[in-house]
Specification:
By secondary structure, this protein is of the alpha+beta class. It has three helices and ten strands, in the order E-E-E-E-E-H-E-E-H-E-E-E-H. Strands 3-4-5 form a three-stranded antiparallel beta sheet.
Length: 153
Amino acid sequence: MLDIKDYLSYDPETGLFTWVRNTGRQNKLNKIAGHKAKNGYVYIQYKTKRYLAHRLAWYFYHGVPPLYSIDHINEAKDDNRICNLRLDTDKENGQNNSTCKGMSWSTTRGKWQAAISIKGVNKFLGYYDTPEEARDVYLCAKREHHPFWVESK
């Protein structure tokens, strides 16, 4: 029985997958595999199943499926370079202390937006002119709603 590794190749430097075998009209030899979905993640269709590319990247590079969540260190959900992926528990993944946690650039508004997850529900905190303002609002909400969180200096 052929494995998915017999059909795809993964480049850990770029994070991209390419087809090494034809599997039909869409999946042609040497064509980049996968598509970016609305949620920002890259999915790869193989036979009748859709796979998250970051989980496949972990499997291809390490040789074993990931047991926990995979965290995108730079928070870019489509950046599947192995240096940008780390194994994480769900709780750690939701509470990591990266410099951009809780804020993102809104291309529609042309401003920085802040948001926080409270008991599994996303709460929008507003739009801001600078990343520093968005970060300050996020940290204030984080201290209020996550009292056991320890801020890194």
